[in-house]
Structure formats: C-alpha cells, structure tokens
C-alpha cells in the first residue's frame, strides 16, 4: 500500500512539474458577463468589402520604447525567459500559443496576431478612420488585440471572423470571444449577424 501511495504521489508531482506555465495574456479581457453586455450593444450590419482595403493603411509595428517596436514588445510581454539583443530582437525565450497550445523557443515561429484582423476592422468601420487612428488600432497594447501565437495558425486565421474561423483549442473559445468583443466594443466597430451568432455560442462556453 505504501509503495502504491508513493508511486501515486510521485506521478502527481511529475505531472505538476511537467505542466506548462500559465500563458500570459493581453490586458483588458472582460468577464463573460461584461462581454455579453458589450456584444448586445454592438451595431449589427453587413460588412462592406469594396476591395479598397490595403494593409499599408494600418501602419503597424511602430516604435514603442527605445529600439523596441510593437511586435518585439508583445514578444517580451507574452514570452517567458525572453532574451533580447541591443536591437530588441528576441534571441531566445519560450512562447506558448494560446490558440493551439504550441510551445516555441524561436521568435521566428511566432506571429503577432491582431485579434480583430485589420481587414475585418476596415470593412466594419475603420475605413472611415484617419490613418493615425488606424495606426493606434494596429498597435493597440491596451486592449486584448495583440497576441503572440503560432505563425501558421495565425496565417490560417488570416482576416476571418469567428463565424468562419475559430482557434484550434476549443478551451480557448471563451477567452477568444471575450477578447474579440472587447476590441470591437472599444473601437466601436460593427459586427455581422453571423459573427454575433458565433460569438454568442463561444461565450456560452465560458
């Protein structure tokens, strides 16, 4: 019996040691209740894609501090043990992608995802903004808009909204939906009816 208990305790300790560190998250993620209230207040209308979107209309990865731009700032914020060189480039560290659970040790394997993609913002209200406002949106470190994630997962998402694409980890649906809603609410962007339905379903997993 004693040997069985010891083995059980050892196994439990091993699982604790092997458990991944908590994933850092951007600021401003609301509670599920707040997100549902925010979602209900968003304007619902069809997105208008007239073919005029250009990524260059959203100047991004601007200098944030010293030699560090937005991408490098998020890599340092969301990674653990991140070491940077004099140019602020990450030379080592560990990043856990919340979208798919991927663990990476090279910054080149990590993309910085815009929770609400730039094109989605363009077709849901940002077309009427000034370039300065679009720059603020593309480099928004104050809301849950920028996430360090596995590069090919980010590429698979592209500019799709939650009715067309969801993160591989269903356990992340709640946080993903709360963050998406918060960004749309903060920036007064509209949503489509299909988008609202998908977000509602995702929030119901919270």
From TrEMBL:
<feature type="domain" description="GmrSD restriction endonucleases C-terminal">
    <location>
        <begin position="109"/>
        <end position="200"/>
    </location>
</feature>
<feature type="signal peptide">
    <location>
        <begin position="1"/>
        <end position="18"/>
    </location>
</feature>
<protein>
    <recommendedName>
        <fullName>GmrSD restriction endonucleases C-terminal domain-containing protein</fullName>
    </recommendedName>
</protein>
<keyword id="KW-0732">Signal</keyword>
<dbReference type="InterPro" id="IPR011089">
    <property type="entry name" value="GmrSD_C"/>
</dbReference>
<dbReference type="Pfam" id="PF07510">
    <property type="entry name" value="GmrSD_C"/>
</dbReference>
